[in-house]
Structure prediction request, 752 residues.
Amino acid sequence: MTEEKLFLNTLTFEYPKEPVKFYFSDRDDAEHKSTMLRSPVLVPKEVRHTPKYAGLFSGGGERVLHTSFDLPTDGFDAIGIDFNDIENEYLVKRYYNRRLEKYFRYYEDVVVTKSGITNDIQVWLPSKGKKKQVAHNGRRYGVVEMDRFTLKVKYDRFNGRPYLLVASDRPAQLLNATLAQLFAGSCADPFTSHPGITASMINKVMTRQVRTGADGRLHVVRHIDRYDYLQSHNKYCPPETTRPLVSGELKRILGTDRDKEPRANVSKYIKYREKIENFRKKYLNTEEIAAIFRNLAYGFTEANALQVGQTGSSKRLLVFGKDNRGNDVKNARQQYGVNSGPHIKCPHTDIQLIAIFHKHDKAYASYLLGFLKNGYAPNGKCRQKRLENYIGTNVFYAEGGLHIEFNDVACPTREIEKALNGEAYRRLNPKVRYVGIYVSPIHKYSSSRESKECYYKIKELFLKHNIPTQCIDSGRMKSQLARDKYRKRTDFIYTLQNMGVAICAKLGGSPWILDEKEKKELIIGIGAFRSEGRQYIGAAFSFDNTGVFNDYSYFQKTELDELVGAIRLAIKRYAALNNQPERIIIHYYKKISRKREFRKVEDMLRSLSLDVPVFIVTVNKTESEDIVLFDERAEDLMPYSGRWVNLGPSKEGHRYLLCNNTRYENEPFSSKDGFPFPVKLTIACPGRNDEIDTPVIQLLIDQVYQFSRIYWKSVKQQGLPVTVKYPEMIAEIMPHFNDRTVYTESNCLWFL
Prediction:
């Protein structure tokens, strides 16, 4: 095995060996400085066993408990609290968070807030990077990038020790203008259709208040809060000193949503490690911190060799057309990887391409269709594999009357809808399967809500005619062709390769599958998406263990019965074709509620007389950025693909961190494949008290790893499995459709 040195972004420390005196009362103190412990999980074991407080949270009573933690308070009872007792975990965490918050309040350049539902401490610092400006209604505003760090006090159950996790969150943007200045910059015309920035467009704000301390000195206190919360709860937020964060609607209006993302071929591990190390040296290597955390480690934690595992060496093998096997999807050699054709062909014999384009892009649309049908442009240059090679069937141009040319660049929906209602589309050939190739004039980073909505409406219009569409950004297409011409390269063929793979899946084919023997195993992926101003939509996808897609369904997030019904339907469809599954594996996008959600699943299984193990694998919707694994021996700090770390058990199940990238031992690595952070997994079997055999744990981790390799929207390796990516993709689209049943062929991935 290649030498490596794995580290986690945690700093170990020690709990006090002896119980610490905390002070409790069932009433608040005279100065109202105590903390109310509203939840029973915050009540320590020692308090529950004290006769005075024993019945405090029993019998559904509404009585609460107050604590001043380790600060002696008149009228409060002193009770020794054992920090090492697992039953006191949540109160101990609250104690350390409180001390951290007080510590960081002393720094003038720091903003301290709470992060997430667990109220972890988040520290905001002005970034040392280049300042930028934005313009709106003729005025220019500065934007300050804020670096954010989250600190979490947790307990490592594998190694039996507490630690402080130091995470670098994605930066935030603070507008260097007050709300008063921003609102004053709105349009003076009261009857304009574009009134400018209004209060409803503001999400979070930073308030600034000068206070007098106990020592008589003035100090500045800054807070981050939701603007609507401050206003509705009569909190301090004067518009003359309150500044907005640039997010959501404000991002689109100011155009910062068009900012280019960092290059994928630069290791984000290096930047992440540099940020947390600088933060540690400046803020966590002080006498004050040493007084809070006993024997806090100076360096980040080296992973215990006993907690490190590896996915099976064969788990990245894929099966392509002609039964070719390999690891590399986009193999440049003509007869390997995706170039060897699809494993399962598109089932239709006559595929015809329809071009949808702006009048100024007609030549590019013709150029593109020539590539797809013939494998070369109309001028005969830049040869590559034809579309028929990627979908496994015949490809032709549609008749001239079906191609749609439009004039409106901003939103061509009306023109396209009119064309689709015309004579040519009323007499479509039922023997032909059409595919729309939409050359979109709307840039990917368009800040207009209407322009973005246009993409979804066009997709829906064509789906009503049973026509899936494949979109390409005309601006990006032109730029790539220009770069190819300048560099004398043919990189545009990789865009066509991506399009070919996606079109194959949209037409019911499978470009490739996993190299696995088929088992009686049903894998169901459940994901959700919430677009701004809209409710959640959920989706459930089912696969067999080889990665062959079965079908999907979608539902409102609040419709728990529909979610369970979708799982039931997936089981019935699978069983009708393959007999009963021997086990069911559910990849879930969030922690599942055992009392509410899983109980419904159990009831449903009983109604089917199905007694099989159900494994719940919670897969975080995004790559883990809170706990990260680094390889100090790697130049880019990214660990080998397939490495995983056992993070120990929790109340939700067994936790793991899985590295999922394209850096393999003794093989060349291309930085163009990117540097994805690890994926955080929690594995549970609620119906069997989470008793899971070791080989099954390995299989479930391997499966998450494998299912990231059957992403058919492109040939690029993904960090997350399709079991959570596909449901999220369709859930993002569906709220924009007027008709939720617009497309009934649930075995086609039309949304790619």
In short: The longest strand covers residues 139-156. The chain is about 25% helix and 25% strand.
